[in-house]
Amino acid sequence: MAEGRHYWLMKSEPNVFSLDDLAQAPKQTTAWDGVRNYQARNFMRTMKTGDQVLFYHSNAQPPCVMGVAEVVKPAYPDPTQFDPHDAHYDPASPTDQPRWDVVDIRFVRKFDVPLSLDLLRGQASLNGMELLRKGSRLSVQPVKPSEWNEILRLARTHRD
DNA sequence: GCCAACGTTGGC
DNA sequence: GCCAACGTTGGC
């Protein structure tokens, strides 16, 4: 495993943008726009090309880790913050020092079976994972290598 | 639809 | 700098 490659988890509501949407996007790539939380933004600013991302469906039934994406372009200003017609418009963001960033991510793979939040909560090895913390709302979060390995192992184990 | 657990805003 | 009010996230 390459040194310096980091692991992340990013949440999306599937009725807004699903992993299938990413797989069908041009070049299977999208700008991860609309993040308006400083902690999440700061994590995105530390992302590097090649970093691996768990793609999570929130507000889904059930909520699930769906598969894997990867960072293909590091942080740059989020254009939606300057668009008055966009839901994520931020009139307070200075144009010369934009407040919000995006990264570009590309589809890598979809798991054979989605890994539900329930299933993940049942894994003692995932104790302490940010996603599983009560009240956790962070939409971009770091994943430990051990957690990454465990989730990929579960993805291999749980098939039709 | 409910509501706990946040994060942000703004009066003081 | 405090903190009440408010808005949002997201599981259930």
Structure write-up:
The radius of gyration is 16 Å and the shape is globular. Strands 2-5-4-3-1-6 form a 6-stranded mixed beta sheet. It starts with 6 loop residues before the first strand and ends with a helix. It has 160 residues and is α+β, with helices and mostly antiparallel strands. The chain has helices spanning 19-24, 38-45, 117-121, 145-157; strands spanning 7-12, 29-31, 52-57, 64-77, 101-116, 140-143. The chain contains 4 helices and 6 strands; from the N terminus they run βαβαβββαβα. The model has no long low-confidence stretch (mean pLDDT 94). It has a single domain, classed as Roll (ph1033 like fold). It binds a DNA duplex (12 and 12 nucleotides) through residues 11, 13, 37-39, 58-59, 62-63, 117, 134-139.
